Amino acid sequence: MDASRAQELLAAERTRIERELEALGIGADSELSHQDQHPADEASELFEEERDQGLRERLQRELEAVARAEKRLAEGTYGLSVESGEPIPDDRLEAYPTAERTVEEQRRLER
């Protein structure tokens, strides 16, 4: 894959992740409705807080993957599997710009 295209894809991915993180940062903490809440409302709030925390953690991992991909791009190894050094197909990188392995290697890893 062309380095400028890779840079474009990674920048778009970073922007998407940062926007999602920003959106999660704006929450119900400013509400004054914590007084006299029904237990079901408190449970719903707890569920939403835990869900948001899980989303934040996932997005942080995705941001770390973008940083690793940017580092590989700078080093000239972007588009090569970190496992085998085999080329990662451009179609995979277009769909998943932070891919670190070929599809086959990723499947083996996830098993």
Topology (SSEs and partners):
Elements: H1 3-25, H2 39-75, H3 90-95, H4 103-110
Helix pairs in contact: 1-2
Index terms:
single chain, 111 residues, mainly alpha, Four Helix Bundle (Hemerythrin (Met), subunit A), 4 helices, 67% helix
The CATH class turns out to be Mainly Alpha
Give the number of domains: 1
As a whole number of angstroms, the C-alpha radius of gyration is 19 Å
Averaged pLDDT: 87
Parts with pLDDT < 50 across at least 5 consecutive residues? 27-33
Q: Write down the secondary-structure element order.
A: HHHH
What is the structural class? Answer: mainly alpha
The CATH topology corresponds to Four Helix Bundle (Hemerythrin (Met), subunit A)
| CATH homologous group name | DksA, coiled-coil domain
Helix content: 55-70%
The geometry reads as: elongated
| Assembly classification | single chain
Question: Total helix count?
Answer: 4
CATH architect. name: Up-down Bundle
Largest sheet: none
Description of the molecule:
The chain is mainly alpha-helical and 111 residues long. It has a single domain, classed as DksA, coiled-coil domain (Four Helix Bundle (Hemerythrin (Met), subunit A), Up-down Bundle), CATH 1.20.120. Helices cover 67% and strands 0% of the residues. The longest helix is centred in the middle third of the chain and has 37 residues. The two termini are 28 Å apart. About 6% of the residues have low confidence.
